[in-house]
Design goal:
Rossmann fold; globular; 201 residues; seven-stranded mixed sheet
Length: 201
């Protein structure tokens, strides 16, 4: 199911959706089992993070893959600038194609490894979806929270998010705001701020 186009942003998201289905034939962008409900499983899911994004934010979306949630965010919120970071060349080419076809001028695509890109980005927010366990994610985005104590990390996590939070708190202190995901299944959106490494000893 997908909505009728009513705004320029929604029209562009529907173009994105059609491009995803087309490219999926040659590149494994999303799980084949989700193709029957691409809009609900990927687009509507990604749109849930809009409430966390302040006006004019500069966002680093890491491990962007097929563009969720970063490219969806960029299209839905033209006031926000999004850096899509994806090391896979084919997926990076897809992200560039969608950005071009949808006219998303508030997007920069970085086809490089995360650790090479983040140290040079002045991003106040980081997003990721189904990328890595939370302890690893926090270390991956360390250049952001070390440079900007007020940075927001918004991570879309599955049903095991509580266990991941407990593990992450073994080495990190942070403030946490949890929102249940509308996709159900126990999934959640974690908004993490004020990250700092715990002192040992």
């Amino acid at each position: 199911m997908q909505p009728d186009p009513q705004t320029p942003e929604l029209t562009r998201l529907l173009v994105f959706c059609e491009l995803l289905k087309k490219w999926q034939r040659s590149i494994n962008l999303v799980a084949p089992s989700t193709l029957g409900d691409v809009w609900g499983r990927h687009f509507a899911d990604s749109l849930q993070i809009l409430d966390f994004v302040p006006p004019g934010a500069v966002v680093a979306d890491i491990g962007s893959g097929a563009g969720f949630p970063g490219l969806v965010l960029a299209i839905a919120r033209p006031d926000v600038h999004v850096h899509l970071v994806e090391s896979d060349q084919k997926k990076g080419t897809f992200l560039l194609a969608v950005s071009r076809e949808t006219g998303a001028k508030n997007v920069d695509v970085h086809v490089e490894r995360i650790e090479r890109v983040l140290p040079g980005l002045e991003a106040g927010m980081v997003t990721a979806r189904a990328l890595a366990p939370l302890p690893k994610l926090l270390e991956m985005v360390r250049p952001v929270w070390e440079r900007n104590v007020g940075a927001n990390m918004v991570f879309m996590k599955g049903a095991a998010w509580r266990e991941e939070v407990d593990l992450a708190r073994q080495d990190h202190d942070f403030d946490l705001d949890v929102r249940p995901s509308k996709t159900g299944g126990g999934a959640a959106i974690l908004c993490i701020t004020k990250v700092r490494r715990k002192r040992i000893g």
